[in-house]
């Protein structure tokens, strides 16, 4: 086995890199992409420096960890930004801007409103009577903040 590892040259690394990139084309969601690129980087390194097989494999492992970690950091920040603007499957964000008529009197200290087939805890800055049309302006956890549609926004 050691003899096989000692015979690794730049063409073996390029072939391994291309093989890993081909496997990535099968739909592995990026898992083999960075390994393939790392193998190609080791091939480039071997073509410029005469290094032993141990350093080649350590370089492959290091490049794999570094490229994967860099991609993970980039993807994590991208996911956080897109999560903030996403409304799909986030019902509370979809509620903002909806209007509903109150079915009962609503006090300043809070109450419940019916929205669809669910009742929600709600808060408002003023007392409202039943039948008033209100708009949902903010959601914090399970509490909706509403205001009368008669109020001016400012």
List strands and helices in order, with pairings.
Elements: H1 2-6, H2 10-24, H3 33-48, H4 53-85, H5 91-95, E1 99-101, E2 111-115, E3 118-123, E4 133-140, E5 143-148
Parallel strand pairs: 3-5
Antiparallel strand pairs: 1-4, 2-3, 4-5
Helix pairs in contact: 2-3, 3-4
Structural class: alpha+beta
> Percent of residues in beta strands?
15-25%
Considering DSSP H and I runs of 4 or more, what fraction of the residues is helical? 40-55%
Q: Using the CA coordinates, give the radius of gyration.
A: 30 Å
What keywords describe this structure?
single chain; 154 residues; alpha+beta; 5 helices; 5 strands; 48% helix
Structural summary, described in words:
There is one protein chain. The protein is α+β, with helices and mostly antiparallel strands and 154 residues long. 48% of the residues lie in helices and 18% in strands. It has 5 helices and 5 strands. A 5-stranded mixed β-sheet has the order 1-4-5-3-2. α2 packs antiparallel against α3. It starts with a helix and ends in a 6-residue tail after the last strand. The mean pLDDT is 85.
Brief overview, please?
The chain has 154 residues and is an alpha+beta fold. 48% of the residues lie in helices and 18% in strands.
